[in-house]
Amino acid sequence: MKMLMFDTEHFWFDTFDKGLENVDDIQKEEEIENTAVAFIHVEKEDEEKERKVAKSAVANLKWYLNKVNKEKIVLHSFAHLSSSKSSPEFAADIISAVGEKLENKGITVHTTPFGYFSEFSIHVRGESLAKVFKEI
C-alpha cells in the first residue's frame, strides 16, 4: 500500500465518471474543511497480508492526524502511485476496513465513492508535514 497524505484547508470533490461497471450509481459532491486527505493505492502484494496492511495503514494515518492536529480525514482511492494493483474488490474492502477502524477510534472519516473518477479541488497547506508519502 502506498499513501500520499495531505494537510488541507479544504478538499472538494464531485463524482465525474464511473470507472468500474459493477459499482452502484452514485452522484456525490462534498466539500470538507480543515481535514487531512489520504490518497490510497492498494497493491497486489497487499492481498497476501491484509490484516498487517490495514493495521499499519490505521497506525500511519493516526500518526499523521496527530502530527497535523486533525480529527477528520478523507480517504480517496487513488490507483496511480504504483504499477502494482490489487483487485478492485480487495481495494474497496481494505479502504472500508481502514475507515471503520479510524471511526472506532473517534476520527471522522469521509470516503470518496470507490470506482469513480472524481473532479476535485484541494488546498494543501505549505508546511513540510502538509505532504507526506508512506509505503506500507
From TrEMBL:
Name the record gives this protein: Threonyl-tRNA synthetase editing domain-containing protein
Pfam family, one: tRNA-Thr_ED
Domain (Threonyl-tRNA synthetase editing) ranges: 1-136
Source species of the chain: Methanolobus zinderi
Segment forming the signal sequence: none
GO annotations of cellular component type: cytoplasm
One Gene Ontology term of the molecular function aspect: zinc ion binding
Domain of life: Archaea
InterPro entries: DTD-like_sf, Threonyl-tRNA_syn_edit_dom_arc
